[in-house]
Design a protein that fits this description.
Number of helices: 7
Shape: globular
Organism: Micavibrio aeruginosavorus
Radius of gyration: 21 Å
Strand content: 15-25%
CATH superfamily: Beta Polymerase, domain 2
CATH class: Alpha Beta
Structural class: alpha+beta
Number of domains: 1
Order of helices and strands: HHHEHEHEEEEHHEE
Protein name: RelA/SpoT domain-containing protein
Number of strands: 8
Helix content: 40-55%
Length: 286
């Protein structure tokens, strides 16, 4: 993380919240250390409510960025509560819900590689974006699959960016919420949706495989072979889904000629259309 980002957050202090939330100063200190983004609260119900509060700001930001880049914006579906609980109470990653940064989601669809490069220039480096009205949004974490193939996570060629909104809670306190902003090629939208359907099948198979794992840990010898067979069946479904998603991913890259983006480095000095460069990692959205 750049020295510029550390300086941005070392000069501002915020009060601790009576509600037990993580304070802005705590989160900015974590950002300066390069720690992963973490929501202000652990309770999914609070995080769902926070996502609703920032929805209007998130939609406005997404539209302005899309307009500046020449693309167009979409708001993502609301996060499913049961999915949140399954994801963070199961074996998937072992973290609590405060590490979930896509309760609120939006998408910018980009029409060509030139727009993709401009999006990379603006968002691929963690740092601060400041709107013309003074609203500050921090780019906290970036997964840039445009410029680097991700074999572990066989998604489409895209860029997922976690941005931080400051907002006022219903109790009148200043807080923050992490929002997931996705950049994808407009011509790959149908592929993106198809890939997500495959991902959902894979996720179901993972749940069943975990169940078979648990059963194998407690069953007797007479039942072990049956559960082992089920485990292998679900594991094969997972591997098949992974291969299918990878095939979709590579098909998109080939069809749209995206391989030429591999290794592309963000240009901090590049002036993006309708975006005024205010120094390293700081832009004003007009």
């Amino acid at each position: 993380m750049s020295q510029d980002m550390r300086l941005i957050h070392s000069t501002t202090e915020y009060p601790q919240f009576k509600s037990g939330r993580r304070s802005l100063s705590e989160e900015w200190a974590a950002a300066a250390k390069g720690e992963p983004p973490q929501q202000a609260a652990h309770d999914p119900a609070i995080l769902f409510a926070d996502a609703q509060i920032i929805q209007k700001d998130a939609e406005s930001l997404t539209r302005r960025i899309a307009r500046a880049l020449g693309g167009f914006a979409e708001m993502g579906p609301e996060k499913d509560l049961y999915r949140v609980l399954a994801k963070f109470n199961g074996k998937e990653d072992g973290k609590d819900p405060s590490f979930n940064c896509d309760f609120s989601r939006s998408r910018v669809l980009l029409r060509n590689k030139s727009q993709i490069r401009r999006a990379i220039d603006m968002f691929a480096t963690p740092g601060q974006i400041e709107l013309k009205d003074g609203t500050r949004i921090m780019v906290r974490e970036v997964e840039n699959n445009f410029t680097c193939l991700n074999k572990r996570k066989a998604g489409l060629a895209n860029m997922d960016v976690k941005v931080t909104f400051e907002f006022t809670t219903a109790e009148g306190e200043r807080s923050f919420h992490h929002h997931e902003l996705q950049f994808i090629p407009a011509d790959a939208k149908a592929d993106y949706e198809r890939s997500h359907e495959v991902y959902k099948r894979k996720r179901v198979a993972q749940i069943y495989r975990d169940g078979a794992d648990n059963a194998l840990a407690i069953c007797g010898p007479s039942e072990a072979e049956g559960w082992s067979k089920k485990w292998r069946q679900y594991d094969a479904q997972i591997q098949s889904a992974q291969v299918e998603r990878w095939s979709i991913h590579m098909g998109v890259r080939e069809r749209l000629g995206l391989d030429e983006l591999i290794g592309y480095q963000p240009c901090n000095s590049c002036k993006v259309k309708k975006l005024e460069n205010q120094g390293p990692n700081l832009y004003v959205v007009q």
